[in-house]
UniProtKB/TrEMBL annotation:
Origin organism lineage: Bacteria, Pseudomonadati, Pseudomonadota, Gammaproteobacteria, Pseudomonadales
GO CC, alphabetical: cytosol
Protein name per UniProt: Phenylacetate-CoA oxygenase subunit PaaI
Domain of life of the organism encoding this protein: Bacteria
UniProt cross-references to Gene3D superfamilies, sorted A to Z: 1.20.1260.10
SUPFAM superfamilies: Ferritin-like (SSF47240)
GO biological process, alphabetically ordered: phenylacetate catabolic process
Amino acid sequence: MTETTSVLDTLLQLGDSALIASQRLCERFGQAPTLAQDQQWLSIGLELLEQSRQWLEYAAELLNDGRNADQLAFLRDARQFHNLVMLEQPQDNPLQAGLCHWLYDGWHQARLITLQGSPLPLLAITARRALPQVRGHWEHSNQWLLDASTQDRPGLQQALDQLWPLCRGVPPDSHDRDEKGIDRSWRMPLKAALARAGLTPPRRVPAAPSRDHAHLQAVLQPLQGVARTAPHHRW
């Protein structure tokens, strides 16, 4: 794998994951127990959307095939996305949705910390700029985890048992050379936070299921609907 391919995989992984995470937060709008919580989730979703735009713009420049960030976001098929698999899983209840986002925030923070040391200015500078926001997201998610565990610890443990097998630093079809380092830096703070919440990762973790693009397609359909209906329209 060439260095250009590796950088492109990283850009698409970050951009696509932030885009899907943002869409997932938008799906939850109006379901929080308080208006303040709803506003906070929406604010985080908008910040992730902006981060996604930046990463996808850089990816479009590297691809240099005439596409821009909007076309990468709205006109690619599900099989062409590089997002974390756990983000596209069906979120059947608020506990599962919240825990999925908590897991993503932990990975996101660890990924950006690693990229700060990249020899490529494009990656290092962008990661450094995004990190303060992502640290705020992680703190907010940690508080949510503590609050949720006091209200429904058994339900949260059940959601953790379902999502933990999907806690991989990279998608199954990626060949990111930093996977092992990111996995270690990701899981350590996760396990510490879980312990504070009285939760335990499953000891025997089954192999992650093969990727089902139908799940991602269901997430992309409302996100891409307008752009696909009128691909040449400008607002």
